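Course assignment 3, question 2. Fill in each field.
Student: A.L.
Task: Predict the tertiary structure for the chain below.
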Amino acid sequence: MEKASAAEVSGSYSAREKHAELTCRLEPEESYPDVPEYLKQTYWWAYLHPVGVRFFERQWIVNFILWGNFAKLRDEVLSELGASISGRILQVACVYGDFTPSVAARLAPDSRFDVVDVAQVQLENVSKKIKNHENVILHRQDSTRLEFEDNVFDQVVVFFLLHEQPLEVRRETVREAIRVVKPGGKVIFTDYHRPNILNPFRYIMVPVLMTLEPFAMDMWNNEITDWIPKEVTVRSVQKTEFFGGLYQKVVVTR
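Answer field:
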């Protein structure tokens, strides 16, 4: 597949153009990236099996997994994106629940919202939730090898993806998210974080994460900025913690 051209960044998109690009992006199948081995081995039950997708695609389950904090964390990202979202936005990896539709609902008429995921079943699932939004485009891509040119997005969102990735995969995801955002644009990371010592979830979550999320403890022992390539210069980093430190939002302005 060809990279999206820089000329696509500005201007409005007709329904016909969007449909044509979506068709192009999802065909032919042999051009799709392979589903990574770590995803097939570790998370097949949650993200790849159709039964798992149907099970987890429930708002109350997503909220329960995040101990009632889904809406707050979603709204924090929405607030960062703006009440009316203009320009070109990228979401790296699909999300269960109403996160993507909530972003889509705020899009200005001339904006564009690209969503990428490496799993076809995830794209099919999210397509059902954003079918009434013509300026949302889905792409089957790997987060470590985004098929976009440098500096094309105004804002990039990475919502609860990094904790699911092994270290080297995570490094490349962070690198790619920053690469494709424009100078002055923002990359918004939301994920787990080490809770403060008085937070009882500090002790509850250790066995949960070690059992179900084998890469997640990296989020406790490192800062997201540790995975920004040393050769990459960013203007600012703003970090906010939530729920006694169990979650974090990190906004990197390039």
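Instructor remarks: The mean pLDDT is 90. Residues 167-179 form the longest helix (13 residues).
Grade: pending
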